Each structure stands twice: as C-alpha cells, then as structure tokens.
Automatic annotation (TrEMBL):
It comes from the Eukaryota. This is ShTK domain protein. Keywords: Signal. SUPFAM superfamilies: Crisp domain-like. The keyword Nuclease does not apply.
Amino acid sequence: MPFYLVAVLLFSSAFTKEDDDDEPLCKDRLLKSECAWFKQKNYCEGEDLAEFLETRCPKTCDICARLCKDRWRTEFCQIIKDKGNCAVTKATVRTMRANCTKTCGHCDELLQKPPRRRIRPKRRRG
C-alpha cells in the first residue's frame, strides 16, 4: 500500500466522528469527497481496506445493500411471507428479521441502530 494512502487513512481517521448510538449504520462518517475518492480508486471492492471502509464509507461503497439479504433460501422466505407469517408473534418477527430480512421487509430496521433506552426510576406512590 503506497505511503500516501496510509497517510490519508491516518489523517482521515483523526477527523472521523465517534459513533453515535442514534445514528444510522448506513451513513458515511468521512467526508463525501473522501469516500468518493476511495470508491473511484476501487478500494471499496478490495480486501485491503474492507474493514476501514465498512465503518467509514458504508453508503458510498454500497455496503448497506449487501447487509440486506435473506439467510434462508429466498423461495422459502417468500412462502412464509405469502402465508402472512412474517409478523405473527414477537418470536416470529425476531426469527424472520434474522433469517428472511429482505423478503419480510426488515432491511430498514437492520440499517438503523436501536434508540437508546432510558431507564427511569419508578415513582413511589404514597
């Protein structure tokens, strides 16, 4: 890997903002121009920078689309969907979200980080 590329990676890492729990997973964390440069140079497809770009340029590198797929055979997921079984019970939703993500329409949920839950103390009555 050329020295200038290493320098760019180190420099841009210094200015990459920290992950925010409420931020979507499918959002570039580097400048748009930086992510575009990596894509133009075909680094999105390579193995060398895969982990770096997966977290910093997922939208530009089309990583988000790759995340949304069915684990089970699509034909099987389609049968489940056609029978209306994508969201029968909480357990079914959980199973279908994990295994028939695309067919059952759970991609948006997959690409969003869950909101932070705030625990509020119970008030005493009395």
